[in-house]
Sequence to fold (797 residues):
Amino acid sequence: MDNAVQIALATQQEKFAAQVEAFVRQHWPVGRNNVQAAQVAAWRRAVVHEGWSVPAWPEQFGGTGWDAIQHFIWQQACARHNVDQIFAAGAGVAVIGPMLIASGSRAAQSEFLEDIRGWRARWCLALFEPACDAQISAMTTTVSGVGGDLCLSGEKSLILDLRHPDGNADWLGVLARCSDQPDAFVLVAVPADHPGLSLRYSTTLDGITEVAQVTMNSVELPPQYCLTEPAAAHDYQYLQYSSVYATLAKSAVAAAQLERIDAVLARLAEDEELAVKRNTLAVDLAGLQALELRCVDALARGQPLPVPLDLMRLRSGEILLQLGALQIDCFGYYALPYPDPAFPNPMLLHNEGPIGPVEAVGVMQQTLADQVTAFFEQDAGAGITALKDHAAKQLKIAAPSTEEASENDTAETAGKTADNL
Amino acid sequence: MDFSFTEEQTLLEESVTKYMQNDYDFESRQKLTRSELGYSAQNWSTFAELGWLGVAFSEADGGFGGGAIEAMLMAEIFGKSLVVEPFLATIVLTGGAIKHGGTPAQKEKYLPGIIDGSVQGALAYAEPQGRFNLSDLTTTASKKDDGYVINGYKAVVLNGPAADILVVSARTSGEQRDTDGVSLFVVDANAAGVTRRDYPTVDGLRASEITFENVAVTSDALLGEEGKGFGLLEHVIDDGILSVGAEAVGAMEVLYKDTVEYCKTREQFGQPIGKFQVLQHRMVDMFMEHEQSKSLMFMAAMRLDEGYGPEAQKAVSAFKVQVGKSGRFVGQSAVQLHGGMGMTDELNIGHYFKRLTIIDTLFGNVDFHLKRFGRL
Fold:
């Protein structure tokens, strides 16, 4: 019998993987810590020049036409080398562009798509609200005049990357309720420097990542700044999450983190408890990798995913957070030093060198930043509970009532839309 | 990268599934566990007639040229029905040892009988003091004339009561725990000096404690090179892990699905208990544990098919760790979610739970394989 089931990539896929690996190595500076703005700009230029700036978009809009395995290879390589897609390309590529392509007007498409494709315009998402986080149905930001001149009012919070050392956002994608259709929502483009915006910034628990809160009082905008057709809350439920291919490449991020841990462990005195923790996580990671491969294989043949994407998000999130905790375990007391540029302490001057082992530098910051990322990728809104509820519906674990069955159908559609992002 | 089955594999899957659905219900299985033999000789003959016993052997050895994927595929379906016929002991372990380590003459002597279902086998490798250490052996094989004399004791030999031949690990040189100096022998289970004490196991199978007292074998009983049998034994055990792990994956699927169905119909407080969010989330976790195990099962099978070495060993150990953890979680959750019914012997749930519990212990438990995974 011929064994069709095999793990090795086909020759063409291997060639592509080598090409991608060489590209990332050449253009992305190693690691994410201390990457300079000029280096990020050079990376952006290289990716756009290569024609890989919007790989998952339809080809007529500049997409690459890659198959599922090629997408996976690209995402894995980026994850392996710590290229954060949102950080590098902005929310325009992952969220705004696909929404515009799916349901934007021709005027809106011609206004925005080309700049997003060329990574010339940086976008951030204004989804959360102070009173309801990501629960869309409870949002109070409203827009009037959809179909004509727009007028936007409300308050949005937890906006990432509006202001960033490597380049501020040019646009906010604001989710708002239509004033004349209370059950319908649209995404509205708002220039980040619009005089009608009142901004306030705060830092997250890592002390470095910044989130903005924006108040909009009757902000007037032209008709083409309405990015989507009015749609139900479900259609926007997954905006804050990473794309399906990025979600299915998280094991590469975790594997890179485990490699760093192994480098530290190799120099530590033998510690059986740490070894057990490390090996337990390594097995979990092997399981995640295998699951990702099965999911990508299913995508490649147009079959349903063996595991709902929500559960993949949860699983990868859990493993990444546990890896962060293990890193702290590894460094023991040297997890404590936390140089903060905003804190004027001469003892923390860079020219004195790192405090403790060089590998410990930035670890705590990264671990705390991972908590922030986990919030945006899985805990947002009702969080883990909501993801598991949705998975339970997809898996048909509970017999739904007639009303729920109808709602499930809508949710399934929304899930698929989000998966296509 | 490809996770799809070939047409032949799909046909095999359909054939085994159909048989199990039509001819292997839980009540019949329970009767078999209480029968004298402990399994059905008729079923075993049918397995042979359908070609299942030869699937994992090469065409040159009289089989159908399948490999780890085919063995995995069958074992997973067997796990769904808690099959008690000795596929693991006779085909995977005994047949596997001869397949991997036998000379052409040994293969010709033993494999046709194994494949046609007329010969039963057992792998006698474990010893009371050794726990999961395959090289911790007090059983010895001393050279004498043109052969060897085996003395020692083997513990919990699966399918020992029915075995016609035994593959026995014994020390031909070295210290008690050395990996060098381990040799494997094919021994007639009814030879003079072989004494068996047979008993049922908690998961419905049969096993024996076997004493070897001056058991004389000729030199052609030696499998592979003298003193170099440890690698062969590891390979066979890793094949065994794939097989029992796949069984566990099949068992977990049944437990998950049965639990979901039960929770949709069992009512408390005026509604199906499956409406309760906390139970739904527990079932989502059961689903995820099963899927993670299944994914690592594929990885282990693919690595074993690529060739036996550290990569395959590592994948097998990762799979065994996952199966141990997931099996416990899924088994316990299924019993708990079934409430009082889950504890009774008449419901199938408890029997799956017992099989999963034993599978964690077989061939090394979670802790053992976690350490092995870390070493590789």
